[in-house]
Every structure is written in structure tokens, then in C-alpha cells.
Write the C-alpha cells for this entry.
Amino acid sequence: MKKMKNKPGDIQSTIMVAFSVISTLIMICMGMMVYWRFSGITQQNIVDNNRKMMDQTVDSIENYLVNMRQISDAAYYDVIKENDIREQNESIHKGLNLLYEANKENLRSIAIYNGYGSLMAAEPVVAQKEEPDVTRQGWFMQAKTRMENIHFSTPHVQNLFDDGTCRYYWVISSSRVVELTNGTDTQLGVLLVDMDYSGISRMMERINTSGKGQYFYLCDGEGNIIYHPHQARIDNGMNTESSVKAASSKEKIYDEYLGKNHRKVMVGAISYTGWRLVCVMPYEIFTNKMADVKQFVLLILLLMAMMLVFVNRIISVRISRPIMKLDHSVREYQEGKEEKIAIGGSTEIRHLGQSIQESYRQNSELMKKVIWEQNERRKSEFDVLQSQINPHFLYNTLDSITWMIESGKNEEAAFMITQLAKLFRISLSKGHTVIRIRDELQHAQSYVNIQKVRYKNKFEVVFDIRPDILDDCIVKLVLQPILENAINYGVREMDDCGKILIRGWKEQENIFMQVSDNGMGIPEEEIDLLLKDTNRVHKKGSGVGLVNVNNRLRLLFGEPYGLQIESELDEGTTVTVIIPEIVYSEENCRKFEEHHMPEDS
Amino acid sequence: MKHGKKTFVIIEAVLGILVILVLGFIIYKQNGHEPETIAVIIPDVDESEWSAFKYGLKMAAREYDTDVVIISKDNMETANEEIEIMNQEIAKGADAVIVKPIANRDGQQKLKQLEKSVPIMAVGDTFPEEPSGLHTIEPDHYHMGADLAQKLLENYRGNLIGKKIGIYSQYATSEAVIKRKKGICDTLKGSGAEILWSVSKENDSKEKINLQTQRRVDIVMALDNASFVEAGEAAKDNDLYGAVLYGIGNSTEAVYYLDAGWAQCLVAPDEFDAGYESVAELIKKRRNFFYKMKDRQITYTVLTRENLFSEENRNLLFTISR
């Protein structure tokens, strides 16, 4: 598997990504902190509001129950105790009627039963149901069990009277044991005050209007439900309620799980009765309440993110632009497009730019110097190569002229001097290195003429030059060393049968100058040395070898050009000069001599 | 450089779109969505037999934060009239309809057509064709009749030889009544009892029937609340000539006649559950397009004087007497 390598990003992206990541993290942290803080406050507000509502409702229920107790007290102390149950029945009815009429909005009935469950008096006066058997009803039994208290029952259908309306009333019964005066005797009975359940349910419905999941319910001290907004569903078994836990809880507020529902429960105690008013707050209501805050926080975070990305972009661009420019200018410099280094931005980056620019300037100067020195070195090397020719040849020729004069061959000496003069005129060529082929051939002709005089025409030289190459360029003094070699090593020793053929022609933009002799030839192992071995000692001739010519040609025209040598022993040798076809002109000549030569080399 | 700029533009564009979406959502929420309106079309909804049902509607409406509009129109006797009222309510903006179907095949087809535009829940009666293709919440009518007859058999220790029975109902064409009657007949088969008459107050002949004119029987079985109440009243006035009353009903009047001893047994369906569940089903459908509404069967209780005020039946009395 190929390993993924992290490609370094550009500085601007790096800065922007780093800024964005940091700012995003900060924003998220801030958002969460704000959300938690708001969440806590909202939750506390909901709990506080419900607590206030619960306190008010507890007060209302307590007042309601106190009123009921006062009715019960009034019925007992002002009516029952003051009258004889047998003899003053009318007064009792009157007293109960007064109480009933004064409180009938909240009362369903007031009734007095003796200890055996027989109805002694009731208000309003309606028919009692057949065989109600009150002694088996809860309120009666409770009253008899703990005689000192007033007891409040859970809601139930009043199953005592038949008012003929075919209706069933839900009541909460308050019952107490009372002493009934019966002549001189007293007997125990039970006073029943049936409160209309709608009084309690109205109070409870008033605080159960939010409809957002939270609700209040009322239960007695044992967890029996007195009012619950989902009463019917609880009775059906479709809902459940943890009323027993709420009734027995010592804490006023606690968290619980009912099934999967996480809820906060607040319990308020209603005095005297032991009833509990319970507020249930599912945690959903807190989260629902926080939904608006959540969306608002999200909106703020998104807007901040937009702004931060924008600001980050500006900052990263401002920081990175000078660096990018510097980098760009360095690249341009490296590609040779621009030599100026961009300098800008902060002090550090400016300093960096200036340093790079100074470094490049120094480098450039150094390079120029190196190139100049190299050129100079090559030029001097070229000049040295070229100047090697003159002393050798001059020495030999002058030696020949001296010999002729001494021998009285003045005409021949004069011819020699004339040819020598021509030779030198072309050698000098006003200091030019590159000359026309025509002049080079003239130079070769002069040299051959001198040599033929020297060697008494022991060999024949034939020129076969195509006229269309005469005006092309050639490095001067190329043919002469070749001819020198051909004469000294080829034909000089032959008896009047030596032959040198000088040919010149053009082929595929190259010019070929060929010097062939029919001499003894060169051994194969020496051919390579002729062109490469610069330390080779020349036994004959001027001492300037073909190495010299080859080097000069390559220095001037480049690597592909130079000399080729072909030789066979006892057959002869052919040396070919290969140069590019360049028409001679002042401009080309100057170009070669000044510029191209160093660069190409 | 260009890549960085492109990324910057894309990020800003994405954030911009998110801002617009969140802003749109907040504005949408601030404007608030109207609570759904459920039209309840029941001809005789003011009768006390619907008290528990209406209490169930109220509780469910509070629970699901929705509006329930109850439409009751006297003399609504044909399916066409009912469909017309439903159309009116839908035109007024009702999002769903609870209806007591006036059952006939034509009406059933029209309800099916209407259900394509709004969800409909049928209560109180059933359809002539089954499966109806409409959603209903109702008790098991056949078994209600069967259990009522079973109670009769229990009270007579299985011996009904020579006993004459009269069956009384409000509507002869009611599918619920037909099923209940079948349940009774199937259960009493072989018991020795003779069903002397079976009449409906409102029938195809349009002839008004009353109990006093019927031949004397030992047992009267009332198959719906209205006929039970009427029979109870007749028993109270001694117009049943000593016949004992068994029946099906769910009103305080029906309970009263049982409590007062004018009836022996009352089978009471849990109409609170019907009201609550019908709203719940429709709301679930409204709020979740993919929700598949279900038919629901509500429970019923066999009430006698002995168990009427028992703790088990406390809830039934509570909902009926609301």
C-alpha cells in the first residue's frame, strides 16, 4: 500500500485553517457555556414559577379545606351539640339548611348518621337510596377509626341520596365522629359533609392549563389520587403515576424516572389533611423551552463563524501576502523571468526579502565573474593554441630561405618570401580568428607552395574545392597543420609520386574539407592519439599536431564538429574537417569570436 | 492562492445558507403553527351517552394541543346530509374528522372518497361492508351482545325455558345493533328462551314503535343506550309489566336505572377511550405522513348493581358522569 504523504499547504491556508479551528473551538465553547447558563436559568425559572403556582394553589386548597372544616365545626358545635337529635330535629334541619344554603356552591350535602349508620338528618332534603349501608363506606369507617379527627376521603361517587335527576355527583367527604344528644343520653354518630369535587377540580384545572407536558396532581398521604389531569387514562391503565413515592417523599423536589421519562417532581404538603400537591415537570419542557435559545445561539454562532472566516481570511491574506509575493518573486527569479525580489510587509519579512535579494545579487556577480574568468581562460587558451603555429613554421621556412640565398637561388628565395608574406597576411587576418574558406585555401596554397619549394616538388598537391563554399566561415590555420602532417608523415619521403588532394564540399548544412595523401598511412592505434594526446612529441614538422586543430574547431563550433581521420597503412591518410555551414559576414564573424564561442563551449 | 479563495467563498456560501435556513426556521416558529382542528360530527352528541366520549376528546385535545369542534345537528338522518356537513367542515378548515357514520353502502363509499382529502375516524357505529376500508374505533359489538346474554343466563342459572324475550333497539339498520343482536341470539340458542319480538324504534316502515304496545315478555334486552334508557323509564313507570331489563348503554341515566333496580345488567362500552383514541390516531396521522392509522377496539364492562360502585368501575362512572 502506498503511504500517503502530507503535502505541505501554503502559508495562507495554514494560517486560515489554524485561525478558523481555534476560533471555531472558542465559539463552540462559548456557545455551550451560554447555552448551559441559559438552560440553568430557564430551568430555575420554570421551577420557581411552578413553585409559586403550587404555593398559591396549596393556599387555595387549604383555605377551601379550612372552610369545609369550619362548616363541619359549625354543624357540630352550633347545630348538633346545641340541639337534641330527637326532640329538636326541626332546629337541626334549620341549622343544617342555613349552613348548606350559605355554602352550597361548594357543598353537595350535609348529613348526620347515628352509630349504626342510620340517617338522622340531611340537607338538602332528598330521598335516601335504598339500603345504602353507610357503615361499609370508607368515610364512615375512617371517622369511626380515629374519632378525634376530621377525615377527608378521596373523590368518590356519592351513593347516598336519590334526587331523581339521574345524575351522579363526585364528592370529597369530610367525616367526623360527633356526640348526638338524645334526651338525657348521648350517643356517637358521624357527621358527613360532602364537598363537591368540582370545587377542587376547578382549582386544579386552573393550574393545569399549560398543556406543555407539565402538570399538577393531588393525592392523599398514602398516594391515592384525588385529582389528576390524566385520571381516566391512569384508571384505564394507559398511564401510570408515581403518587405513592411523591406522598412518601421527604424531599420537596427531586428527579425521577417514570418508565423512560426523566422528570423533575416538586411536592407541596397541604396541612391537616396530609394531602400532597405534586408538580411534575418532564425534562422535555426544559429542552423545549430551550429550543428557542438553542436556535438563537446557533444563529449567533453561524453569524460569528461567517464573520470570523471573513476576518481570518483578511488577517491571513495580510500576513501571508508579503511572504507569497516574496516566494513568487524568488520563483520568478529562479525561472529567470524576473530579477527583482519583492520586498514588503512586516520588518522581519522585509529583512528576509532584502537578505535574499542581496544574496542573489552577490551570487549573480559571482557567477558573472566566474563566467568572465572562464571566457578569459578559454580565450587565452585559444590564442595560445593559435600562436603555437607561427614560431615553428617561421623557423623552418626562414631556414629554407636562408639555405636558398646561400645557394644563390634568389628567385626561388624571393618566391618563398612572397608566399611567406601571403601566409602571414592571412595568418594575421587583422586579428580575426574566423576567416573565409577562400582565404584559408589561399593560406594553404601559400603553405603548399613554400613546402614544395622546400622539398623540390617531390609531391603533387591538387585542390578540388566546390566554389559554393568559398565564402563560408572557417577557423583560420586549419588546413595548414593537416597539410603539414600530410607532407611530413605522408608524401615527403616518397620519390616524386607523393600526392595530396585537398577537397572541399557542402553536405546537409555542413562543410567538409578533406586532405588526402597517398603516403604510408598511420597505424590504427595512433589515429586516436592524434586527436587526443596533447603531450605527444612531434618528431617532424612544426610540432603543432592535429590535436591543436581539433581543439580549436570544437572550441569555436562545438562538440559535434572537428576532425575525422581515416588511414590505412601503405594506402594513405585522409583527414576531414567538418564545420557548420555559416556564410561569412562581419556580424557572424564577430558573433563567433566574441559570444558564441565561449557559450557553445 | 486561487484554491484558498475558492474554499473561502464556498465556506462563506455554506454558512450563509445555514444562516438563512436557521433564520427562516426561527421566523416560522415565531409565527407559530395553528393547532389542528378536528371536526366531530355526531347527530345526537348532546345526549348524556356521549359524555364520556366528549371527555375523552377533551383530554386528548389538551394532551395533543389541538382544537376539537363538535358539530351536532338535529334531524340528520341520511348519509348525504352527514357527508354535506363533513364537506362544510373541511371547507372551513377541519384537518380531520371524527364521525358517527349513518351507515349505508352509498355513505360508506362517499366517506372513502372523502378520506382521500382528510383522515377520518368512524365511531359509534360500524359499516355494512367489511372490511370497510375506513378506520373505526368501536367495541366488539357481537361479544357485547353475547356477554349480555351470558349474564342473563348466569342470573337464571342457565335455565331460560319458557322465558320470553323482547329485543329493543333504536335503529333497525344500525350495523352495531345487528351484531349485538346476533351475539345475543347465538348465546341464547338452546337456552330454552324464546325471542318473542325484536323491534326498533325507528325502522324502514317509519312506524313509531313503543314498548307498551308490545306483547308481554319476561325479559327485555335493550341493544343501545337510547333504547335502554327508554326501557328503564318504562320499567320505572311499570310499563314493562314486570319484565326485567338487560341492556347496553353508557349514560348516567342508564347507570341510574341499574342503580335504582329498574335494570338487572348494563354492558357499558368505554367511550372515554373511544374519544381519546380517535383524536390520538388522527393527530398521529396528521403529524406523521407515513403513520398508518389503526382500527381500535375499545373495552366494555358488564355492570350490575353489585359491582356498580366498586373500585374497578370507578373510572367508568367517573368518565360517564363528567
